[in-house]
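wait is this the right file?? whatever heres the structure
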């Protein structure tokens, strides 16, 4: 084969890109632990029913984007397109309701067959978090604060807007659904084919349609806020007041929706105008009906997810790591001693650059390329005296240090 390339929509994460994604994921993990959320990992593939039941049989993900196959045992298996369904399945199958409230975060690859574009691939990575077993609005406030904290820690907050909406409780949602169906039925001939198929099963998804004709109809559709009952209004009022308490501003977006019936109350997205059309950076909301939809006990839930590739585009590059110390041996005996020194220093927590060959000039060039902070120069004379020359590569200062004190001296510098 003349040219081997990765499959379309996938890409290799070379060391620098991988370091950037690890930086984002580790930042999210560390901040999550401040809020009591600990990382959990579910399998990369699940039985197809896990996603078909939770994402809805009219959603684009289920109808067009899932990587589904039959395994050798005849089971229908799907590579996970998102993280929440697997966490919900694990909650049920592991009896985690006994641990309520359950607070978990996750990080890993997801898979969707869609048109590759900026910040969006067929194999991509997400960070996310779920809070299960908390009905109170305090859970929503905490979850939004947690997401905002990550974006602040990554240095992105100044270019982020929190968009917020309420989907009301099931009673409010049912009332709005009926009004919405009546409205769109009156304009049925103008709806796109996708929206016509969603009209009976999933009418709220029409509000999120990208079709220009649909968007014109949506602009004049009734607003959810007009059909909220008192409980829903009070929940949303408490949410906005709570966000004020923790210093988070928001913009109301009445067209921000989630199409499936298990979503309720809080719906939010952190968006940016720095990524072109792909403006959503992190999205989440409350899903009190999800666990019961999957056959588990009635369990409140709220969560969010964020695409790591999009965050990486905004962050640009990871902070510089620890600068290494370069070992520069001159002669075979020094080469052997440097191997021992390298192991000792690394086990003491010092990053070490040790070349495999070359004279002193070549090794110093390699040290410069590796952005080394110091060079340990060792030749026959130094070996005889049990010392090394320690050179500061920024200032050029050099001192003689006993070999058995090298790790301590380097650690103090």
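ok assuming it is, sequence goes like this
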């Amino acid at each position: 084969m003349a040219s081997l390339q990765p499959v379309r929509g996938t890409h290799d994460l070379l060391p620098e890109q991988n370091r950037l994604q690890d930086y984002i994921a580790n930042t999210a993990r560390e901040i999550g632990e401040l809020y009591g959320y600990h990382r959990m990992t579910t399998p990369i593939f699940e039985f197809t029913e896990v996603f078909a039941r939770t994402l809805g049989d009219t959603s684009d993900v289920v109808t067009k984007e899932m990587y589904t196959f039959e395994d050798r045992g005849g089971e229908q298996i799907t590579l996970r397109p998102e993280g929440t369904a697997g966490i919900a399945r694990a909650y049920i199958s592991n009896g985690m309701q006994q641990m309520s409230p359950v607070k978990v975060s996750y990080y890993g690859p997801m898979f969707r067959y869609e048109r590759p574009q900026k910040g969006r691939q067929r194999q991509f990575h997400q960070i996310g978090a779920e809070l299960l077993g908390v009905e109170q609005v305090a859970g929503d406030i905490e979850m939004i604060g947690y997401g905002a904290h990550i974006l602040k820690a990554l240095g992105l907050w100044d270019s982020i807007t929190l968009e917020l909406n309420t989907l009301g409780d099931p009673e409010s949602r049912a009332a709005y659904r009926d009004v919405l169906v009546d409205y769109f039925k009156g304009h049925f001939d103008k709806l796109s084919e996708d929206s016509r198929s969603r009209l009976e099963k999933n009418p709220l998804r029409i509000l999120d349609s990208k079709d220009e004709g649909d968007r014109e109809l949506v602009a004049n559709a009734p607003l959810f806020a007009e059909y909220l009952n008192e409980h829903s209004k009070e929940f949303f009022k408490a949410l906005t007041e709570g966000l004020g308490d923790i210093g988070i501003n928001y913009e109301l977006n009445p067209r921000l929706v989630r199409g499936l019936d298990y979503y309720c109350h809080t719906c939010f997205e952190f968006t940016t105008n720095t990524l072109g059309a792909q403006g959503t950076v992190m999205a989440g909301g409350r899903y009190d009906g999800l666990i019961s939809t999957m056959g588990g006990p009635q369990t409140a839930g709220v969560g969010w997810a964020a695409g790591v590739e999009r965050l990486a585009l905004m962050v640009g590059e990871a902070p510089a790591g620890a600068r290494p110390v370069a070992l520069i041996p001159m002669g075979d005996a020094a080469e052997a001693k440097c191997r021992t020194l390298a192991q000792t220093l690394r086990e003491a927590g010092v990053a070490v650059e040790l070349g495999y060959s070359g004279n002193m000039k070549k090794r110093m060039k390699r040290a410069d390329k590796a952005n080394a902070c110091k060079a340990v120069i060792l030749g026959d004379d130094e070996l005889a005296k049990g010392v090394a020359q320690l050179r500061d590569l920024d200032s050029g200062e050099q001192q003689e240090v006993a070999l058995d004190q090298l790790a301590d001296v380097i650690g103090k510098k």
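The mean pLDDT is 89. so i think its the right one actually
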